[in-house]
């Protein structure tokens, strides 16, 4: 018997376990993970970048807390900002929301962008939005392992197993069943199964529109250094940023169906991405692909935002899924939010209610203007 059974020990499950054991040290918390090498987990295959430049207040506030948490945990955070390039009206509209919610972002005209980043072609750019602090990239593996280790030191138990079902009656879950026939009785269960969250939800009879969508990240070398390079988001929907001596880059995929094998799609680079990158940064004519990797976005096809909370049909099965490309930066806030729901029955710090199940059931998507790839 455990108080809380968390299915999946990626960054989200680890964060829920960390916050539960930090806030309630006597609680028994069990993390159930089927692949302790995390070889296919999104948390191992992430680009681990963090931005405040969302259009929804809840996403902005989760990122602000994410940056604060990284600093508190002593995780390396490279604060070089995101530079969104594009249409003036669209950038100004989201900038207002960002300012109201505490984000530190400056709007720059083409001349100002050129003065800061002389290597960038701004011929077709009306405006740029540059994050001045709390934005950039971080050591995602260090965050994941710190959360997991601290959760275990604080008393959480990590067990190997694949959850295949839930025992349920009277709108409550009473236990989880594993593929080897074992059963773990619990007072609460958490779906932290990342890109596999939909099938886990289905095992409890709940429809969750989270799909495993492959994204390729290219590791590139360029003979020319780009001074003070931020993470650049291009209006033609690709991004790049420095990674050590190299660059990494990605774009919306050519083929976007469910559960594609986790092999990089090298043709994406040759058939479009390279041309677009070289148009934006002429020095990128000389780019060379060093290698590439692929991971799954846990894509919420309803509105590309996380689903955090319980479904009305089951009061004690908690969901923290569908982060759609921003789960590393939101892991700290999501884990703390789920811990508050379990321990207090309500959010105590950040109100994550806009990310609840209600919007899915009522057909009210939470529109996020700044979705990347
Ligand atoms: C290419 C790429 C780039 C990204 N870039 C960024 C970025 O820049 N910034 C950002 O914030 N986010 C980014 N993300 C998203 C981020 O990585 C994810 O949102 C986050 O890692 C999700 O964590 P998770 O714990 O939910 O899922 P995972 O890390 O996938 O963990 C889920 C775990 O559940 C386990 N599991 C699943 N089903 C079961 C079961 N039935 N029984 C037992 N165990 C089970 C799996 O084995 C897995 O280990 C990126 C993702 C990818 C793929």
**How many E-type strands?**
19
Specify the overall morphology. globular
Strand content: 25-35%
Structural class: alpha+beta
The poorly predicted ranges are none
Largest sheet: 8 strands, mixed
How far the N terminus sits from the C terminus, by CA atoms, comes to 42 Å
Helix content: 25-40%
Average pLDDT rating = 97
Order of helices and strands: EHEEHEEHEHEEHEEEEHEEEEHEEEHH
Bound ions, cofactors and other small molecules, one mention each: flavin-adenine dinucleotide
Number of helices: 9
Radius of gyration: 21 Å
Task: Give an account of the 3D structure.
The chain is an alpha+beta fold and 373 residues long. Helices cover 29% and strands 30% of the residues. It contains nine helices and 19 strands. The strands form three sheets. Strands 1, 2, 9, 10, 11, 12, 18 and 19 form an eight-stranded mixed beta sheet that branches. α1 (11-23) runs parallel beside α5, α1 (11-23) runs parallel beside α8 (327-344) and α2 packs across α8 (327-344). The N and C termini lie far apart (42 Å). Residues 7-13, 32-35, 38, 41-43, 45-49, 162-163, 192-196, 200, 215, 217, 295-298, 323, 325-329 line the site of flavin-adenine dinucleotide.
